[in-house]
Predict the structure.
Amino acid sequence: MGMTDRLHQLLRDPDSTVCSNALVALMECTELPVTRTLTYLLLNRMKELNDWQQCTALRLVEKYVPGGETEMYDIMNMLESQLCGSNSAVVLSAAAVFLRLTQDLPGLHRQVAERLRDPLLTLASTSPVETAYSCLCHLRLLALRMPAVFAPMYSALI
């Protein structure tokens, strides 16, 4: 059995740290195909992972192309709790997944931007200056792409 085969087996290890380390090793050593099985494995383990591990998993989930709208909604529902977290990296990584999943559906993309607006504003207003700046930069990009979504929040953004 080769190293990559063993690392693939370790993705299913009960210890989330072992799983996460195997994921990072595979991402560094090979062109890891982002399959439905791998995506759901990571999504189902999300609550077990620490913040760094969640960001790593979300980077991979972001590359996954769902088979249809039902699967896309399933993924977004599974990641809903990541948008409410206090760690800015996890929130922004989850936001990237949401925006990527809906990029070809303008109406839903707008709804996602509306959904992201409040968590990002909360992070920007409650985080240290460096983190707040990063969140505000992300909000600015979203506001430039969808000004109508952020028009009601204009006073909070200036």
